[in-house]
Specification:
Helix content is 38%, strand content 2%. By secondary structure, it is mostly helical.
Length: 169
């Protein structure tokens, strides 16, 4: 459009100046700006003309490899199956190690106290050696029934009798 010959409809619109109206300004472009090529590459969504049986590989990585979503899904499922096998193998190895450790501990306990784990009796009582008959039960003082201060008092009394016992008071 030339300024000398405006469009007839635009010539009818009056122009007003407003302090609130700002005209558009040019935007400065960065130095890394690159123009678009004049010819575009072929579409990645279209099948390959040389091999139409394969679907187009339109997922592209930063390294340049391309794949279809089906290929990505297949590789993810294979990876998931591989990780499940590794986990099952690790759990099996751990279980075998725990069982081996239990067997070794049991063998060590049997070596230290043979017959202890094989019998149902797990309370050890020392054999009483003496002239008591097997049917007779000898009363054994319990630890909580003993009074340690009674022995001290008895010894103090005996000591006083030894020191002052010879005096006739």
């Amino acid at each position: 459009m030339h300024d000398e010959h405006p469009h007839p409809l635009l010539a009818q619109v009056p122009l007003t100046l407003s302090p609130f109206l700002s005209l558009p300004t040019a935007i400065p472009l960065p130095y890394s700006y690159k123009t678009l090529p004049s010819t575009l590459p072929p579409s990645i969504a279209q099948p390959n003309p040389s091999n139409p049986s394969h679907p187009p590989a339109y997922v592209q990585s930063s390294s340049g490899t391309t794949a279809t979503p089906d290929q990505i899904l297949t590789s993810c499922l294979a990876l998931q199956q591989h990780l499940a096998e590794l986990e099952a193998d690790a759990r099996r190895t751990l279980h075998e190690w725990e069982e081996k450790r239990k067997r070794e501990e049991l063998a060590e306990k049997r070596r230290v106290a043979p017959g202890w784990l094989d019998s149902g009796v797990h309370i050890l009582k020392p054999d009483v050696i003496g002239d008591t008959e097997p049917g007779e039960a000898k009363e054994v003082p319990q630890l909580m029934d003993l009074d340690p201060q009674a022995d001290v008092k008895k010894k103090e009394g005996e000591e006083l009798d030894r020191v002052f016992g010879g005096l006739k008071v």
